[in-house]
Amino acid sequence: MRKTWLKVSGLLLSMLLAASSIAGCNGSDNPSTTGPTVSPTTEQGSGILSPAKRLKVATTSSLYDTGLWALLEPMFEKEFGVEVDVLYANTGIALQYGQRGDVDIITVHDKARELQFIADGYGTTRSAFAYNYFVIVGPASDPLGLKGLSAEDAFKKLFASKTAKFVSRGDASGTNSKEQAIWKAAGITYTDVRSSGAWYVESGQGMGPTLQMAGQLQGYTLSDIGTFLAFKGQTGLTSIVDKGSILLNVYAAVPVNPVKVAVSNKDMAQKMVEWLLSPAIQKIIGDYGVKDYGAPLFTPCAGNEPAN
């Protein structure tokens, strides 16, 4: 009988201690019946943002690698009171994110696929907000003598020689799509290029790592000029071919269509489009890179998309 009483007494004592501990944690003798209110303090932690307060953006690696999104993201968050989640990948993957409803808006650089994305019902509108150019870059020695050639003729010489390394993104990115377009314009089948020997290397990576690989191999590659300039100090590569309408590179914003797939913040996605096209942000985009490189990495083009 005594053992039973001791067990009960011990249980009651444990319950009293637990209740006392809980009261101490609440910090009040009269806790609210609706539970504690979570406040954004270091002691209590911060609350979880509702989906309406988050905006998910899929962007191409070149916009990310140049640091442009690092500049724009906090500005948009401050102005609109929303948390922006930027997912960077190649254009192909960014479009897939949009098709699945993983993001609210995409900012990429492959017009043909952007228009197809909209035609298939996944996007609402396409708004070009900036452009620059692709360049064929390589070692300063330019072993194949591509300097001064058109992009198409440079690719012909690369394919005919098969001695100098060419590093391709090989990843269904906007840059990889442009590369394929140049091979086609040069009259060379892309599948033939891919199977033509060890000179043709596919990195399967973003633009920054691809440039670094080309530098290590002392080979050539195709890059948007913004990322090339941002990584130039790390690669030792120089611009070899930078003229020709085929090298135009336009960036556009496309909100994901909420009628086709479920998105979390369609209204804020539209606000981002309008914000990117606004005079103030267009000026910021146009000034970006001037201080470090002596020239802007992007040219703003709201309402004035270049054709060539």
Chain-wise SSE layout:
Layout: H1 2-26, E1 54-60, H2 61-65, H3 68-80, E2 83-89, H4 91-100, E3 105-108, H5 111-119, E4 127-139, H6 151-161, E5 166-168, H7 174-185, H8 190-194, E6 200-202, H9 207-217, E7 220-224, H10 225-235, E8 237-241, E9 248-255, H11 266-277, H12 279-287, H13 290-293, E10 299-300
Parallel strand pairs: 1-2, 1-3, 5-6, 5-7
Antiparallel strand pairs: 3-9, 4-7, 4-8, 4-9, 4-10
Helix pairs in contact: 9-10
Spans of 5+ residues with little confidence (pLDDT < 50)? 1-42
Distance between the termini: 96 Å
CATH topology of the largest domain: D-Maltodextrin-Binding Protein, domain 2
Domain count: 2
Describe this protein's structure.
- This protein is an alpha/beta fold.
- The chain folds into two domains: 130 residues, 3-Layer(aba) Sandwich (D-Maltodextrin-Binding Protein, domain 2); 115 residues, Periplasmic binding protein-like II (D-Maltodextrin-Binding Protein, domain 2, 3-Layer(aba) Sandwich).
- It is built from 13 helices and ten strands.
- Strands 1, 2, 3, 4, 5, 6, 7, 8, 9 and 10 form a ten-stranded mixed β-sheet that branches.
- Helix 9 packs across helix 10.
- The relative contact order is 0.17.
- The N terminus is likely disordered.
